[in-house]
C-alpha cells in the first residue's frame, strides 16, 4: 500500500493538463466570456435521480456541477460566463469516472443550441486540430443502430430489445434507452470524428427546453458530443420557465422516492432566480479529464489525474 | 454472507451469481449522458472456469460467496478423493476429481498447493508453479545433445508426460512449470 503514494499521471500528463487549462482560458478571454467561481459546497444538490450528490453533514452537499449557481449569476445579469471547477458525484467510479473530477461549464445568453454547438466545435478545433465533425439527430442515430424508433416504439419493445442484448431485468423505458445508447449506439459512432448528437428524447431533457420535432413528438433541445468513444460534452438550450422547472423538481422528487433514493429538496434559490428571469441562453458542460484522455489516446482516467480515488 | 453493491465491485471479489460462486475479473462503470448508470461486469465461474459477462444497474447488489484460498499440503489420493491438510491446524479436506482437475498430474505428496474452499469444501486446486518429479520412463537419449531439437517424451512418477531434452535419463528428477506443462530443468542429486 505504501508504494501507492506516487501519482498515477505521468509528469507529461500533468503538464498536458496545465496546457489544456491555459488553452481554455485563452479561448474564453478572446471571446469576452468571464471566468467565475461559485461554491462547491452548498445547501442543495442537484435533484436529478441519476446523479447522487455527496452529503457533507452540517453543510449540505458537494456540488455535482456549478449549474444552479451559474444560472443565478446569469439571472443577476452576469452576461456570458465560464467556470473551471471540481465537481463531485457519489458512486461514479470506473475506468472513465472518478467521484471527484474537473468540469468546464459555460453559458451563453442569446445563443441558441446550434450557436453553442459551433462554439464547442471551435474549442475542440484548438484541442483536437483537424478532426472532422458530423451531426446526428438522436432519433435516427438510435434507430440506425437498434432498428427501433426511441420516440414511437412501445415501452415493452425497447425493454425487451435491451434485455435481449444483455441489459438487467426490470428496466424502465428510459433506462432501457440509456442502456442501448451506452452499449450499442455510442460504440457504433466513428472513433476519429467529433459526433454531435442532438434532439434527445423529451424525457431526457433534464434542464433543457423541449420542442416538437417534425412528427410532433417531444424532443429536448440538448446535445452531446462524442469523440474517441467518449462523451465529451453535454449541452442544453436552458429551461428558463420557473413553473416548468418547479414541475421537473417535483417529478425528480417522485422518481427519487420511487427508486428509494435519498430525497433532494427543490432549490428555492434557483427557483427564485428563474422567477426573477433567466435570460434565454444555452449552456454546456465538459469533463476536463475526458478532454485530456481524448487528447492523449487514453482510456483510463487515472492516466490524467494526479491522485484518483484509490490514491487520494 | 455480506452482500456487495455495484460500487463495491472490484477485481477479485467473490460473489454468488445464478447459484454459483464467481470471481469478478473486471467491472466497467458505464453512464450515458445524464442517464441510468450501469456496471458491466466480467466474472469467472469458479466451478466451471467459464467467463460470464453481465450488466447490472448501478446500486444493484450481489451476495458475497463464501470462498477462501488457503495453502494446504497434498497428502495422498485413494483413487476417488485427493486429500489435503492444513499444516497449522492439521485439519484435512478431501477434493473430488472435478475440484482437482488438471492439477492431479502435478500433485506430489507433501507439496503445498493453493486450495480454493467454497462453503468450506475444496472447489479448486492449484499446484505449485514448479514441481519436481521423477522421470520413470523415457528412451535413452544420444550423448552430447544439448540443444533443443524438440526433445523426447518422458513419463513422470505422477503419470504426466512432458517433453524433455534428449540427454535427460530415467531416474532423474525433472523440474516442471505446471502453468505450461514444460520442462524447466533437472535437479542434480
UniProtKB/TrEMBL annotation, chain B:
A Pfam family reported for this protein in Swiss-Prot or TrEMBL: Elong-fact-P_C
Span of domain Translation elongation factor P/YeiP central: 69-123
Stored CDD domains: S1_EF-P_repeat_1, S1_EF-P_repeat_2
Main location: cytoplasm
Modified residues (N6-(3,6-diaminohexanoyl)-5-hydroxylysine): 34
Post-translational modification: May be beta-lysylated on the epsilon-amino group of Lys-34 by the combined action of EpmA and EpmB, and then hydroxylated on the C5 position of the same residue by EpmC (if this protein is present). Lysylation is critical for the stimulatory effect of EF-P on peptide-bond formation. The lysylation moiety may extend toward the peptidyltransferase center and stabilize the terminal 3-CCA end of the tRNA. Hydroxylation of the C5 position on Lys-34 may allow additional potential stabilizing hydrogen-bond interactions with the P-tRNA.
Function statement: Involved in peptide bond synthesis. Alleviates ribosome stalling that occurs when 3 or more consecutive Pro residues or the sequence PPG is present in a protein, possibly by augmenting the peptidyl transferase activity of the ribosome. Modification of Lys-34 is required for alleviation.
Protein name: Elongation factor P
Native source organism of the sequence: Alloalcanivorax venustensis ISO4
